[in-house]
Amino acid sequence: MEAAYAEVSGGFSDGFIDSWHDTFGLPNGSRDKYAQDLMRLQYQRDGQLLIDENDAFTGLTDTQVAFQYALSQDAALNVFVNLPTGDSDTLLGSGSVDAGVSWQGAYTSESGWRTSTQVGVIALGNSGLLEAEARSAAAFGQVAFAWPASENIVLKLQLEGHTAYYDSPLSPVGKNAVMLGMGGSILLGRQWQLDIMVSEDIAVEASLDVGLHMRLTF
Q1: Looking at residues 110-115, what average pLDDT do you find?
Q2: Which of 137, 22, 128 is nearest to 84 (CA)?
């Protein structure tokens, strides 16, 4: 079972994102036309304003209950249900019960590099404010590569994506998403591990422009 508490706000990372794009020669879109670290979420349909948020909000997101069955040492079948514990009016939840299934497998070579793959499909329920545009199902997938650069450092590359959840001409809502993640894991002694990843939207405007992920595991 997995649950999360989230904050949606103007953030603090616009300067980092601009520097990231500049360093790697990536397109920066129209980011330089707007003030940094501010938020405005607005959605209008048929002349009716459905979403208009410019203040930060926090709350519990949707909760996922998942079951995994090992098919072999390197493959597993996953079944999961997303429960609508998040507030759909503030976009912290979908407002529906969603269910899905996926297969995942992994391969480790004799030299130590490892690849893993996951593919699946999710059935989407009533999607609250955007119910009129919602699709009934979506597919998702992920492929990742890990290479042990040293005894304590593993470098990782990850490509993941999903088909659009909505039928809409707006790219952030109705476009298939593809993201590239770059990072790795650092072993901190025998019991601690630090994972760091930066993700970039390969399908522009369909997902987060840049994402910074950090996880500390004991």
Answers
A1: 92
A2: 128
Question: Closest by alpha carbon to 155, among 123, 186, 201?
Answer: 186
List strands edge to edge, sheet with 98-108: 63-72, 75-83, 98-108, 114-123, 137-148, 153-162, 177-188, 192-201, 210-217
For residue 29 the two structure tokens come to 């879109």
Q: Tell me the two tokens of residue 187.
A: 């072993």
Helix, strand, or coil (residue 194): strand
Percent pLDDT > 90 in the chain is 55
Report d(CA 146, CA 137) in Å as an integer.
31
Structure tokens at 99: 């269910």
What pLDDT sits at residue 105?
Answer: 98
Q: Residue 182's CB: how many other CB atoms inside 10 A?
A: 14
For range 173-180, the mean pLDDT:
93
CA torsion angle for 127, 5, 146, 112 (degrees, to 10)?
-120
Residue found under tokens 């593919």: 119
Question: What does the pLDDT read at residue 208?
Answer: 82
